[in-house]
User: What shape does this take?
Amino acid sequence: MTTDAATARETDAFEIAHEADLIRVRKVLRAEAEAAGLNLVDATKLITAGSELARNILNYATGRRGRIRVEQVYRAGRRGVRATFADDGPGIEDVDAALTDGFSTRGSLGLGLPGARRLVDDMTLTSAAGSGTTVVIVKWQR
Amino acid sequence: MRIGDTLLVALQGDLDDTTVIRIEEQLTREIAHTSATGMLIDVSRLSVVDSFIARVLARIVAMVRLLGAQAAVVGIQPAVAITLVELGVPMGHLDTALNAEQGLALLRRLRHDDTGAGRP
Assistant: This one.
C-alpha cells in the first residue's frame, strides 16, 4: 500500500470525538467513494466499515477521540479510497484476537474489526499496548 | 402511520447512535400504549445500516414480540443487505419483507401462527 500515490486533491482529515462525527465520517466516505467511481455496493461497504471503525474510536480510544484521514488512491489504473483511523491508545494487546469474529472485551458482538476487514479490499492494523492504534482500509473501484 | 392494527414506521436520514436509541424507546412505548398488534419498520430510505443500527433493529423486534405484538423489518436495500451479511451481523432470526405490502402479509401470517389457528 505504500506504493499508492495519493493525489494532489485535498484530503479530508478531521477529529473523531463526538457521535455526530460518525455521520460526518459516513458523509465524507460517501463523497470520496463517489469521486473514486465505486459502485453502490462497494461504496456502502466502505461507508459501513468506516462507521464501525469510527465507533471503535468513540468506544475504546483514550479520551474517546481519534482522527480520520480519507484520500483518493491510484494503483495500476484503478481508483480507490483509503481511510486511516488513528487514536492514541490504550492500543490493542492481541491484534490477532481482535481480528477474530466474536472477540470482544466489552460484551458487544465483537464484529467491529473482523467485520470491517471483510467489507474492504485491504485492512492493516498497527497497534501496541500504550501507543495507540492505527487502522488503514482501502476499497478499490471494480 | 397506522394501517389497521399495524404501526408503519419509516426510518430515514443518517442516524447517529443517540437517535437510534431514542427511536427504540419511542417505538417500544408506542406499542405498549396503543392497541397495535404489529409493527413494520421500513428501512428502505436508510443507505447505511451498520452493526449498531442492525443490533438495535433486532432489539426493537424482540421487544415488540415481548409486548405481545409482531414486528418485521421491511425494505432493506440490496447494497445494505449484502453489506450486513458480509459484516456478519446475525439477522437470520429477524422477520423481513421486501416492502410494506409484503410486510403486512407477513405480519398477518405471523399473527395467524401465534394464535395456533390453522394448526392440526
